[in-house]
Specification:
single chain; alpha/beta; 2 domains; 6-stranded mixed sheet; 4-stranded antiparallel sheet; 31% strand
């Protein structure tokens, strides 16, 4: 089953189109990266899914059912603009948010105990949010988002404000939530996070979806059949199926060559040819990073 299906969603503000006939399909129990430059329409789509605003047209299906107000309890939303009450104590605030998601007070207290032990924040419960550091407040906000064990978790820039240690802690929790059955959508500008975490991605630019698929499918779609070879001993290729793009000395007599494969060539055939003319120490296909794909598509450049 798909966790979320978005079909033909359009949203316009006066003369500005925020979303233009957007379709998305988010597989259940996956980590789905919602990518795009600032102003692309990501936050508008997230707000529509959370029913903060309404779409002008289109439909959204959540776990096989049309999206309604009854789904508030199965969604956890961490907005980019954090929403804690500064004058309120952390413990009271967590109970308040849990009750909004349908938990009883006793259920909320049990779940809060688990999370404060996990994050080692028991001493913060009687502190006001305004007395916390930004990183501490971020932890509290994350706990408030996930403690009711939502089936769909939407995280907008979840690592903002975290140092590397706490970013790793949140990463581990995201992976654990996925293992327990949650579907996670997160919007981020950190492409290294996309590389590490995402199963599927979608790219929105200028209000339109321009790319969607599994991370592997997307990379395969934009790879250039180029190979990086480290070797000892110079060689040349005569063109045709295999084209030597460059060859540079690295160190200690080793060279690095970049080879383009054209037509019906295969990596195995290329390796066979190379070992006849040089001593190969490493052979690697050049796979584009998510950052490279993102930049090339957003800038409207062709990807080689």
């Amino acid at each position: 089953m798909e966790a979320l299906i978005v079909r033909g969603v359009t949203k316009q503000y006066a003369n500005h189109t925020a979303l233009d006939n957007v379709d998305l399909t988010v597989p259940e129990k996956s980590i789905y990266g919602l990518l795009g430059p600032n102003g692309a329409g990501k936050t508008t789509l997230i707000r529509i899914i959370n029913q903060i605003i309404n779409a002008d047209s289109g439909s959204i299906t959540l776990f096989g059912q049309p999206l309604t107000g009854d789904h508030v309890g199965v969604i956890g939303y961490l907005p980019e603009e954090r929403g804690l009450y500064k004058k309120m104590k952390v413990g009271d605030q967590l109970i308040y948010f849990a009750r909004l998601k349908g938990l009883s007070r006793s259920e909320a207290i049990k779940k809060i105990r688990v999370w404060v032990d996990k994050f080692e924040i028991k001493d913060w419960l009687n502190k006001k949010v305004e007395d916390l550091s930004k990183g501490m407040a971020q932890k509290v906000q994350f706990v408030s988002t996930v403690m009711h064990e939502p089936r769909l978790i939407i995280l907008d820039e979840p690592f903002s404000g975290f140092d590397p240690v706490n970013a790793q802690l949140i990463t581990q929790e995201i992976l654990e939530l996925k293992q327990k059955g949650s579907t996670i959508i997160f919007s981020t500008h950190r492409m290294e996070t996309v590389e590490d975490l995402c199963d599927d991605i979608a790219l929105i630019n200028k209000s339109k979806k321009i790319l969607e698929g599994t991370k592997k499918h997307v990379k395969d779609q934009y790879k250039s059949n180029t190979f990086l070879v480290e070797h000892r001993g110079a060689f040349s290729l005569n063109g045709g199926t295999y084209e030597l793009l460059n060859q540079n000395i690295i160190e200690d007599g080793f060279l690095k060559s970049t080879i383009k494969m054209n037509g019906t060539g295969s990596p195995n055939d290329l390796i066979g040819k190379l070992i006849q003319v040089t001593k190969v120490s490493s052979f690697q296909e050049k796979i584009p990073s998510m950052s490279e794909i993102f930049i090339s598509l957003v800038k409207g450049e062709s990807h080689e």
